[in-house]
Automatic annotation (TrEMBL):
InterPro entries: ATPase_NBD, Hsp_70_fam. PANTHER family: ALPHA KINASE/ELONGATION FACTOR 2 KINASE, HEAT SHOCK 70 KDA PROTEIN 12A. It comes from the Eukaryota. Belongs to the heat shock protein 70 family. This is Heat shock 70 kDa protein 12A. It holds the Pfam family HSP70.
């Protein structure tokens, strides 16, 4: 997606899109799967639909075994608080692995180069002339965001040219500039003070944020971003489990191993049926399944697939003939139950939060929100809410990210998801501090592992404002850098970083090269939380000199 500044000034929603083609299905789409294919020499071959088609063609000829095919790899960053730079990602067949940073950077480089190639057909533009925006789920943690930033830099995007946008926020900004549905309800009619919930249902994750419109038309986050891995892939997993219950997991794994192309085709077919399904329990859903799946089962078990069906609870709800699987609407609807159940339960819980009470609008965005089934379930669960679905729900995040690139300060305040702090030492006080935390350094008795809180969970974080400021001293006179270990917790008032629930997510390194002050070199550290990424600033108090300070989430402790 691309927008020129001159166009944005006239019409913020004038955004150019790239058409992706799935040749095997004759499909043209504005989105493409997160799939990438490398040749046996680990060199980039193709991305998206092209990678899927190429891998399928190789598998049909049984030539795919030495190739490296990755799909849906973005999900590996979800929920990984211990994420490190050297993390590996497994191939689609789980038989090989490569550094995840390499795969992410290859994907980003391809997208970057693809755009530049297209643009340079008409006018010469360099990568440095563009403000690049990468989107991530709002529920991702700081290490995952830093991982994406490093992958982008490795792909040739300069640090100052890159913004990280949070997906539900981006969608919210798109809806702000575009009437979201015909009739009287549109985001443009929301007045200052009105609250609304953004329900961003994507392929992997569901991201939920609650915003309020301010007098200056900026938005503030009323409650910390939340959600889970409840996206469209959870429905895919339910379908896989249905097949496994009929034929058994060992046979399903054998089918996947020996018929990789058929596996890809089967789930492409399921994806179409999943999107089309409207929840009609009286209408059967017909899915084309590979004959090789049935043949693998019958060869391994020496019984027919019909015999296997009679031994399950699905015999009256499902028929399997040759390459056709016919599923009753009632059974097909159950494939959505885990995903929709998690979403609805979580939204109900959020609506009870004091800061969220009074919210009357839910805006559904993201590709999974285009599912008629998801829409119906949300409307049914919240009959008193105004559920709004934009005409381009699946593109809201992408288009909103482009708008965010022009207006990065449109979200003026966010909420802290955790209590953040640094591991520090302080003077040991008998009776106050635990004896096992006592440590003698020179002639000083210190208490180690103190959780020095910089921001408390739920605290309002204003954009570009230092929400916290603490002063620290070196513990040795010749010390040229102070290394702080960085921790988070759900607790409101942690004492030690070793307390239950405290998690180490990285370190902060502050350079203090001038040692002339010895121990009397107090450093003022400011953590700036209000943006989409955490920033740090350090100043020598005596001289008011700013010194180098970096947050390193991906290094080992």
């Amino acid at each position: 997606m691309l927008s020129h500044y001159s166009d944005f000034e006239k019409d913020p929603c004038k955004i150019s899109s790239h058409n992706w083609t799935a040749a095997s299905r004759g499909l043209v789409s504005l989105k493409t799967p997160t799939s990438i294919l490398l040749n046996p020499q680990q060199e980039f071959e193709s991305f998206g639909y092209e990678a899927e088609d190429r891998y399928t063609a190789l598998a049909n000829e049984d030539l795919h075994h030495e190739w490296f095919y990755f799909r849906r790899f973005k999900m590996m960053l979800h929920g990984s608080l211990g994420l490190k730079r050297d993390i590996m990602v497994k191939t689609f067949d789980n038989k090989k692995e490569l550094p995840a940073l390499k795969i992410f950077s290859m994907a980003i480089r391809y997208l970057k180069d693809n755009l530049l190639t297209t643009l340079n057909k008409s006018v010469e533009i360099l990568a440095d002339d563009i403000q690049w925006v990468l989107t991530v789920p709002a529920i991702w943690n700081d290490p995952a965001k830093q991982f994406m930033r490093e992958a982008a830099q490795k792909a040739g995007i300069k640090e100052d040219n890159l913004l990280i946008a949070l997906e539900p926020e981006a969608a919210s900004m798109f809806c702000k500039y575009m009437p979201v549905e015909k009739g009287e309800h549109s985001f443009q009619s929301f007045q200052p003070g009105s609250k609304y919930m953004v329900l961003d249902c994507g392929g992997g994750t569901v991201d939920i944020t609650v915003h309020q419109v301010q007098k200056d038309k900026t938005l503030i986050e009323l409650y910390k971003a939340s959600g889970g891995a409840w996206g469209g892939t959870q429905v895919d997993e339910a379908f896989r489990q249905l097949i496994v219950k009929i034929i058994g997991n060992p046979i399903f794994l054998k089918f996947c191993d020996e018929n990789a192309a058929d596996f890809v085709d089967m789930f492409r077919e399921f994806e179409l049926k999943k999107r089309e399904f409207k929840g009609d329990g009286n209408k059967k859903v017909t899915i084309k399944v590979p004959v090789s799946l049935k043949e693998t089962f019958e060869k391994e078990t020496e019984e027919t697939i019909q015999d296997a069906l009679t031994q399950t609870a699905y015999s009256s709800k499902l028929t399997w003939t040759a390459d056709k699987l016919r599923i009753s609407g009632l059974l097909f609807a159950t494939l959505f139950e885990i995903a929709t159940g998690n979403i609805i339960e979580h939204v109900k819980k959020l609506l009870k939060e004091p800061a969220v009470k009074g919210t009357t609008n839910i805006i559904m965005v993201g590709g999974f929100s285009e599912s008629h089934m998801i829409q119906a379930k949300v409307k049914e669960a919240f009959p008193n809410m105004n559920v709004i679905i934009p005409a381009e729900a699946g593109l809201s995040v992408l288009k909103g990210a482009v708008i965010f690139g022009h207006l990065p300060k449109a979200i003026s305040a966010r909420k802290a998801k955790y209590t953040y702090g640094l591991a520090t030492m302080t003077k040991f006080v008998k009776g106050k501090h635990r004896e096992d935390k006592k440590e003698t350094i020179g002639n000083q008795v210190k208490c180690k592992d103190i959780f020095s809180v910089h921001v408390e969970k739920g605290e309002t974080l204003e954009l570009d404002k230092a929400q916290s400021e603490r002063s620290y001293n070196p513990v040795e006179p010749e010390q040229k850098e102070i290394i702080f270990q960085f921790y988070i917790t759900d607790s409101d008032d942690p004492m030690y970083v070793t307390d239950s629930g405290c998690t180490h997510i990285g370190k902060m390194v502050v350079k203090i090269p001038d040692t002339s002050g010895g121990l009397d070199r107090q450093v003022k550290v400011q953590l700036i939380f209000g943006g989409t990424e955490l920033k740090v600033k350090a100043i020598i108090e005596k001289t008011n000199q700013e010194v180098t300070a970096k947050l390193q989430f991906l290094d080992k402790k």
